[in-house]
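Quick illustration for those who missed Monday's session on complexes.
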Amino acid sequence: MGAGASIEEFKFPLPTSYAGLSTEQQEFFHVKYSEKIGVGKSPIEAIAELDAEFDTIEAERLEKKTEDEFKGLDADGDGHVTRQELSAAIPSATVDELEEAIGAADADGNGTIEIGEYKATIEKEIEAEEIKQEFEIIDSNNDGIITTAEMENFVEATNADVDAKEGMEIMDANCDGGVDIKEFTKMMVTKGDEE
Ligand SMILES: [Ca+2]
Ligand SMILES: [Ca+2]
Ligand SMILES: [Ca+2]
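Prediction with calcium ion bound:
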């Protein structure tokens, strides 16, 4: 319990997003926080600065995790994940599933997955998961279609700075009056590219 004791000493309200950090990382933030307070920052300033630092650390943590996963897949360590290596890592996957997974990730078309392709795939998966979560929040009756009424409820509940009807018209590519996950994803990804 040695490490735990020092955390107690520097106890401050960690944002809930810190929960995924290791004990060492949490301790690092507690120490940083006490340093900031020590040089006269207010708790709010200290937390704001820590939040920005946390985003950087979180991004690095994800990158390291992704690199470790890639190394785990690339059994012979030559920098390319082949179908055989992927198959060994996921024995339950069928030949079709393996082909599909490689095909989806293999941006340069050389038949294997390289680290950049793997990272891009993971980023896409994370983005897709975030979009799906947002979709499910708006689709309040969970039937897989966002209606104008659901969109209006969402805009009202969140005070979002959008016109619900206008938003629906933009998203509803096939003009059937509802927005499915495909249309919603397309809108979110396009929006992201413009930023
Ligand atoms: Ca390999
Ligand atoms: Ca490739
Ligand atoms: Ca619905």
